[in-house]
Amino acid sequence: MNVTDAIADILAREGVEHLIGFPSNPLFDDNAAAEAGIRPIVVRQERTGAHMLDGIARVTSGEQVGAFACQHGPGTENSVGGIAQAYAESAPFVAIPAGYSRAKTNTDPKFSSLINYQHVTKTAEQLTDPESVDEMFRRAFQAARNGRQRPSLVEVPKDVFREEIDEVEYTPTSSARSAPDPNAIPEIVDVLLDADDPVINAGQGVHYAEAWDELQELAELLEAPVATTLNGKSAFPEDHPLSLGAGSKSEPRALNRFLERADAVFGIGCSFTTTAYGITMPDGKTVIHSTLDAGDIDKDVESDYSLVGDAKLTLAAIVDEVRDRLDDDSRGRFDDVADEIAAIDEAWLGDWEDKLTADETPINPYRVVYELDRVLDKGEVIATADAGNARDFMAPFFEVTEPLSYVGWGKTTQLGYGLGLMMGAKLAHPEKTCVHVMGDGAIGMTGMDFETAAREDIPVLEIVLNNFEMASYDTPFSGHYADFAESMGGYGERVEDPNTVAEAIQRGVEKTKAGTPVLLEFLTSKETALSRPDLD
């Protein structure tokens, strides 16, 4: 067999279902992936392919590790952003870019994935010895699957792909969980039980560990409110009486109120990275930080106590200790905490009602979010919002109730990221309605891949908030995106009347259920108001 066929066989044995990217790469060109039973998907832009694999990983709790492939040279140069984004968001897949032939690998100015991707991948290796293909890919998949999950990379020089080798005997890799130090649990439970106003901050690690039940049980035992990071949004049901919503640039009012008053903050499955798109940790709090990656502890926020381990195992250990200590006794504050959250939420939503239900034209973007929140079946939806105002409108006002029903992100993020995320989500969960809200800046970055959705039968629901301007930068844009969607083989509809927003969304959902990707273009006002603590 040759190296190309060996790689395809390894991918199949590892359970890879999709090879996504762009030719020229023999895994596509020689039909090797398809012959191994892997679905090849060619995108219009390389980074969208990486975003799709990111989305697959995120909505499967990191269990589906896919594969990305692209051309040497320009393909690898174009792919950096998508792989860097997946690295920042801890999304695992294995990237297999082609490289220049071994004789030319180090000839200036040829682009080397091995050198240039080292800071945005968990591991980066170059396959120069064809006979080591099995061990190199085993290392890549092992790294991607275990610990803090992130992309791994194996660059294959283009002359290596067609080298003949002996038949490969490959055993798939496995995943392992790490538990926290059991001796540290009692002291941390002391702190949690002694706190008068504890707050739990749950991150994406709760999703990857599938620790949703344990998180809810701990919150109810402690009778403590729960905030999530934007990556962790949907880790705790936002219709639960103890939910504070997701911390972001724009967030529910109750989150900041309770965080300011907290005497202890327990971060579980989060990095506590200081970012404009996360919670701002006030000074003077007792901080307990539990994460899978020890490198995050004390990185931005100084912790008083720490635990390193899988979120599910950590929460289970803490829950067992708390339950034993309480012995079925109530803390006696559940109703008071829940009533206070409900009162703050009621006043906050009352202050925003005029925007959420506005009848003005152009349509207020908050009206679109309000109708999405009201119309969509939360048990059947996976949603995301793109960078910029779309994120800020959606994060506080689109309520999610089911685990993995929202794909958020926590660091700097490329415009157009969400299209690939939801295409990946739809591949992983074809039974779900996968919804992406973006602005007219984002669609300009990756919009051509709407054609990929049509060509590959990936019926996503795209919502474009078109105010003919790039956010607050006063840069005019133009375009008729609904017509564009029709020209690309999907369904497009332009909506100008606020009173028809809900029915347009309903039509869009039905079209996606019938197998057609949909783009709904809402002509919106240049809204700038955000739900910020300093404004509330």
UniProtKB/TrEMBL annotation:
<dbReference type="InterPro" id="IPR029061">
    <property type="entry name" value="THDP-binding"/>
</dbReference>
<feature type="domain" description="Thiamine pyrophosphate enzyme TPP-binding">
    <location>
        <begin position="386"/>
        <end position="521"/>
    </location>
</feature>
<dbReference type="InterPro" id="IPR011766">
    <property type="entry name" value="TPP_enzyme_TPP-bd"/>
</dbReference>
<dbReference type="Pfam" id="PF00205">
    <property type="entry name" value="TPP_enzyme_M"/>
</dbReference>
<dbReference type="GO" id="GO:0019752">
    <property type="term" value="P:carboxylic acid metabolic process"/>
</dbReference>
<keyword id="KW-0786">Thiamine pyrophosphate</keyword>
<dbReference type="InterPro" id="IPR012000">
    <property type="entry name" value="Thiamin_PyroP_enz_cen_dom"/>
</dbReference>
<dbReference type="InterPro" id="IPR012001">
    <property type="entry name" value="Thiamin_PyroP_enz_TPP-bd_dom"/>
</dbReference>
<feature type="domain" description="Thiamine pyrophosphate enzyme central">
    <location>
        <begin position="187"/>
        <end position="318"/>
    </location>
</feature>
<dbReference type="InterPro" id="IPR029035">
    <property type="entry name" value="DHS-like_NAD/FAD-binding_dom"/>
</dbReference>
<feature type="domain" description="Thiamine pyrophosphate enzyme N-terminal TPP-binding">
    <location>
        <begin position="1"/>
        <end position="106"/>
    </location>
</feature>
<protein>
    <submittedName>
        <fullName>Thiamine pyrophosphate-requiring protein</fullName>
    </submittedName>
</protein>
<dbReference type="InterPro" id="IPR045229">
    <property type="entry name" value="TPP_enz"/>
</dbReference>
<dbReference type="GO" id="GO:0044272">
    <property type="term" value="P:sulfur compound biosynthetic process"/>
</dbReference>
<comment type="similarity">
    <text>Belongs to the TPP enzyme family.</text>
</comment>
<dbReference type="Pfam" id="PF02775">
    <property type="entry name" value="TPP_enzyme_C"/>
</dbReference>
<dbReference type="Pfam" id="PF02776">
    <property type="entry name" value="TPP_enzyme_N"/>
</dbReference>
<dbReference type="InterPro" id="IPR000399">
    <property type="entry name" value="TPP-bd_CS"/>
</dbReference>
<dbReference type="GO" id="GO:0006520">
    <property type="term" value="P:amino acid metabolic process"/>
</dbReference>
